[in-house]
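Field: sequence (string)
Field: structure_tokens (string)

Example rows 1 and 2, in order.
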Amino acid sequence: MKPTLQILATACLMTTRLFAADPTPTAAAPDFAAMRAEVEALANLTEVPNYEVVERADATPNLKPILYSGLDYQGKPTKVFAWLGVPETTTGKVPGVVLVHGGGGTASKAWVESWNKQGYAAISMSLEGHDDKRAKLPEGGPERPGIFGDSTAPIKDQWMYHAVADATLAAAILRSLPEVDPSKIGINGCSWGGIITSTVIGIDPRYAFAIPVYGCGGLDKIPNHYGGSLANNEVYKKVWDANLRLDRAHMPILWHSWPQDAHFSMEAVARSRKSAAQSESLLSLVPGMGHGNLSDRPEWFAFAASVMKDGKLWIREKSTAVEDGKIEAVFVTQTPLESAVLVSTTDTGHTGGRKWIETPATLEQDGDKWNAEAAVPEGTTACYLNVKAGPVLTSS
């Protein structure tokens, strides 16, 4: 019996060792490169989606509500509600603009009208599967799940994927209109619409200009609800962060915000502007502007008009320097500037929570160069110069 017991004991020991050496199965690491490729393939949405006019009493001959086909969501087809408008009178082909609303917003007839009055065709779509009254559509796409809260879902079922697709399809509709110059389509988005705008222009290079308002990339580094939600979200950081692709954006960009914005820090806006270094850009930081779904800002229209008319910015910041207690910025423009002010803070922390003050600055003309200069208050932690031409404000 002893030899048998010894054999059994040896066999049991060997089996235990075999099981101990057998590696525990682990989940496959996310393929972020494949996810990015799926996102970037949205640039191939060049065909005009099917769309139909919605019969409503508030429609006009030049401004109509429509439903257009979006991408499938969770295997089912979707419809997107939008307002689509063209100027009442046109001479030749007109430019166009895609309008991207922010959180809590929806398709805006008033926003389309504002751009129509400036001579642009425009389309404003609802990005959360609603109509313009925020009623859920039977075939509506996904609603935004907080701050990239659906990052564990397949890429094609994530809200941002559909938001980018909806904007790209809306641009295809504008390009198809007989009144529109397809080479002159811009994009303008506020808040979450600014995030989408910053994302779209790194995916689709065809936009003639871009105006992201508040929203930008690098959200995981903002010391507020964005940073708190995204610090450990690798899908956002490695797939969706607009800064990953902004070096591919070559169209002129107007970065528009205000220093007191609680959602998007000035550092985050600056990082995105730096990421888009291949683009000519303007910065416009308007003290006290407020945060919302805006529909009418003179800075937008002056910027877009200069790009559409002359193919270049109406004003350029040539240089800015802080030295010996002074800040000096040199702007180049043929449009007369009227005034300059210094905007500064001595506080630290998130820029939206700091107190910003405005103090006088001098402004001198030298041909098409304008030199703005101011003394920097002692203890200043951040500052910039604003110059104005009429109601239009530009920042250093």
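Row 2 begins here:
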Amino acid sequence: GGIGTTGMIPAWCPFSDGEKIIYRGLADKVFRAAKKGVPHEPADKLDWVSINPEQLMTVYDDMVCSSGAKVLFFSRLADVEMASDDTIEAIIVANKNGLTAFKAKVFVDCTGDGDLSVWAGANYFMGNNSDQVQLSTLCFSVANVDSYGYTTNPNLYWENKDSPIHDALKSGKYPLIDQHSCNNLIGPSVVQFNAGHIAMTNSTDPWQISDAMVKGRKVAAEYLRMLKDYQPQVYGNAFIVKTASLLGIRESRRIEGDYVFTIQDWLDRKSFDDEIGRNCYFVDIHIKGYEAKHYGRGESHGIPYRILTPKGIKNLLTAGRCISTDEEALGSLRVMPPSLVTGEAAGLAAALAIKQSKNDVHNIDVDFLRKRLREEGQYFK
């Protein structure tokens, strides 16, 4: 949930395969509740729906708290204590109370970077053969925009041949901007941007992340300067109201699971006996030299449960960006809708491991897991 809230991503990636919604269950509940914060969006719209981050925060607050779970903000994972080579005993959390140990029977790593998994000894991969990770972005919002002008003037998207971004890049006046210029009207007179790129060689290095935050704020200011120059009737009186508190990291660690989902699996539209959901997002890799790969209408692939189970760790599951894929397939599975799907499956699997298999996530009854997910509304084959 972090990238849609403190990360300020302006829109959901598509929830449909072009014909029907495929990210269902908990993902669908979150999506529809979040849409109440963007009433200007059509009720039947499923793809690239704007996100009001404050609304999404309250959605997550209400859903988590109403479930009976306790929330502990302003706390970070600091260490992992192992009972044996393959079993986690406790995590150490740092906050204003200092260091506190929390024990559990099963743990779910939703850190995005796979911190818990790596510190527990799981194997991982990062980047490609050239040690490149996907470029990051610091999202930002601009207020006091002319809403009517925003909807009637050429949109900034690079794919639009009339976009001012083409002339702006040719001018050479704005060295910090590039063709990445996604944006959405998230409310009256407020446009939120997922624009620009920031390069890092290691997206888990705190020094590089800190430098990226500083650069990201400069990138945001340069985009606004360009917009004021090229669309003064829309952005002439606008100002940056907020830059994200969380850097938009597209790629860091990929934890090795019992199965590694590959780009060939994606190309084959592969289905799995243990799939816990479906995914149809295109292969969207923010590194020069990679070409986007798209499915046709109605096409998707299965998400196997085995990519959520880190190899060699008995009582640990992963969900979100750090699941077990190769670097190219991650370009499809890293985004929010499939992350919500893997999150729900990991949560249910954790509960079943405690009840069924002495806390061993590798030996649960996957057919029963799939049955429970179907009962919660999830879609798979």
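free_text_note (row 2): Residues 77 and 88 are 14 Å apart (CA to CA).
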